[in-house]
Amino acid sequence: MPRLVKRYSNRKLYDTSESRYVTLDEISRWVKAGEDVKIVENESGEDLTAVTFAQIILEEERKKNGYLSLPLLRNLIQHGEAALQNLAATVDRGMEVIRAAPERARERVQELTSVSDRLGELQRRLDEVVRRSVEAVTSHPTFQQEMRRIERTMQALEARVGRLRNGAEAHLDESVPPPPPDVEDRAS
């Protein structure tokens, strides 16, 4: 049941539940706190709730609290209830966007995860292609023959460096012939 406030001809407001006179500021606080308030003319019983609420809004505007913007007030005067319905619809759309934001964010995260999974699979395929290509090259007889030749040359150089360290050679002979090819290499 709403709190009943009677308005007398002298414009005083009387709260029937607390049996005392009240101000517009008190009524405003009640409404802001979520209380249901009804204001009636004492003599006629006419409902003055909307008029009183409008008066509260006017007082708030006078205090420069910026309750309502000038364009909104102009729109209310020009279009009345349709402006309020439009405002309510705009607020509802905004609230829906806010409510839908977590779901949209979750969908984006899922999309990014999916892209990451696809990139991982692509990387695995690419690694496999590279591995097979390297195996094909390294298993080719010409490549293996060249690797054996390089290995023999390195062994010969290591032996020579070892002899130089031991003082076996007095100076470096610049015309060192490469080691002779293996019998295996001559057959190819």
What descriptors fit this protein?
188 residues; alpha+beta; 64% helix
What does this structure look like?
The chain is an alpha+beta fold and 188 residues long. A four-stranded mixed β-sheet has the order 3-2-1-4. Helices cover 64% and strands 9% of the residues. The mean pLDDT is 84. The protein starts with a strand and ends with a helix. The protein has helices spanning 24-32, 49-62, 70-79, 81-138, 141-165, 183-187, and strands spanning 3-7, 13-15, 20-22, 37-41.
Counting H and I runs of at least 4 residues, what is the number of helices? 6
Please outline the major beta sheet.
Answer: 4 strands, mixed
Low-confidence segments? none
Rg of Cα set:
47 Å
In total, the number of strands is 4
Q: Work out the strand percent.
A: 5-15%
Decide which structural class fits the backbone. alpha+beta
First-to-last CA distance: 107 Å
SSE string:
EEEHEHHHHH
Give the averaged pLDDT, no decimals.
84
In the sheet with the most strands, the strands line up as 3-2-1-4
Sum up the overall morphology in one term.
Answer: rod-shaped
Q: Helicity, in percent?
A: 55-70%
